[in-house]
Fold this sequence. Notes:
Blueprint: H1 19-26, E1 33-35, H2 46-55, H3 68-78, E2 85-88, H4 91-102, E3 108-113, H5 118-125, E4 129-134, H6 143-148, E5 154-160, H7 172-181, E6 187-191, H8 206-211, E7 216-221, E8 234-237, H9 240-249, H10 257-268, H11 270-293, E9 297-298, E10 305-309, H12 314-323, E11 326-330, E12 339-343, H13 347-361
Parallel strand pairs: 1-11, 3-4, 3-5, 5-6, 6-7
Antiparallel strand pairs: 2-8, 7-8, 9-10, 10-12, 11-12
Amino acid sequence: MDFKPYLKKLTPYPPGKTVDEIKRELGIEGPVYKFNSNENPLGPSRKVVKVIKELAKTVNLYPEASYIELKRALAKKWGLSPENFILGNGSNEVIELVFKALINPGDEVLVSQPSFLMYEKFAQIYGAKVKVVPLDNKLKHDIPGLLRNLSNKTKVVFLDHPNNPTGSVLDRKDWGIFFKNLPENILVVIDEAYGEFIEDPEIPLGIEFLKNGFNVLVLRTFSKAYGLAGLRLGYGMAEKSLAQLLDSLRQPFNLNLFAYKAGLIALEDQAYLKKSLKIVKEGRRYLTQELSSLGFKVYPSQANFIMVDFGSVCEHLYQGLLRRGLLLRPLKPYGFPNSLRITIGLPEQNQLLVKNIKELLG
């Protein structure tokens, strides 16, 4: 059997491991604290749990195929029309739909390095050429570098904003330079998986560019701020013709019943969202202050995680914390061998992490 030649070097995406996997592999009997996967430490909204329990008795039936209620709720939230939305089994699915709709083998896509790995994975799967542009010296998307790497084969530019794993963002001046010099036929995918956690009022959101007529697809997810990572629910916002094309390419019933209805309840539960954002913003400030006071470089972040350069003690701390059941994400695969990414936890979890780091430092 002949496989597509550009798939031969494809490697699977390395997902974070579950608590059960970690306990099994490391022989940990006590509690495990996940600071490695950017999940919501609050758990899901109680209102979401209630509706899931109520829906369990109807799982023999297919959900409504159009998902129109959720599209209407999102349209109300963002001041758009339901026809501007494409719903996905996680925002990953919406990213793949972009490749199905716009990318032919040999076309080029631009990504920053590091950034969300799935942009490159889908490019490999669909035979596209990936042009990689390193982040600038402030670990932000290098706007001049991205513009220099455009060609007549460039179809899409993927920008995660905030960036993963740095948490960096672009200001209005950066975006202005970018769009002023970008050909109108090139789609910009602004991936705002962590957009809810942006605290700086001077940082523009993708919805602004969409409403001003720029050629953008803005991605959002329910996995982070809304605490629904296990249900896989994301969406994109775009001008109507693009959104409707992407919608025509998705699998029927691509959202399961639980995800669909949980999304509706999550949007209504503003108290949960407010609490979730408060925990992250306060925890981000706490960990930044504490780790900076220990002499480590903490990079500015507008996400639900921080990136920390631990220097020569990075591996010692990572392994020591791992043995104690505290999991952080090593960033050596991203090109930062002395750095770890830390998901913001509950206040008591953040305090426990700092306590253990101090103990390991002696």
